[in-house]
Amino acid sequence: EGQSYTDIGGELIKKGIKTKQGNDNWFSVKIASMIKNISYTGSKQTLKKRKDLLTGKFIERESKESTYLILDSHPQIIEQDVYNKAQKIAETLSKGKRAKRRTVDN
User: Nearest CA to 48 among 31, 33, 66?
Assistant: First the structure.
């Protein structure tokens, strides 16, 4: 509880858990992304990005008002209260810090 993303990556390496791509190394930014992903609660947030019709590139929406949260859209992996607690811890850890793209060493 309250571990940094690097510490979490170190624990995953010690336990021999590989990334989705089968890698041994974990990037702290990927761990941060996983912790912030609401999909693990069984809900889905839609329309986070929009497609620019001129360039074909996807652009982040500027406000959350233009997104929708669909509850119970698929089976959950973690409970909502666990997710909420993780968000509070992540917010505390990220104040004044940014997750750097680096690998976690053994």
Answer: 66
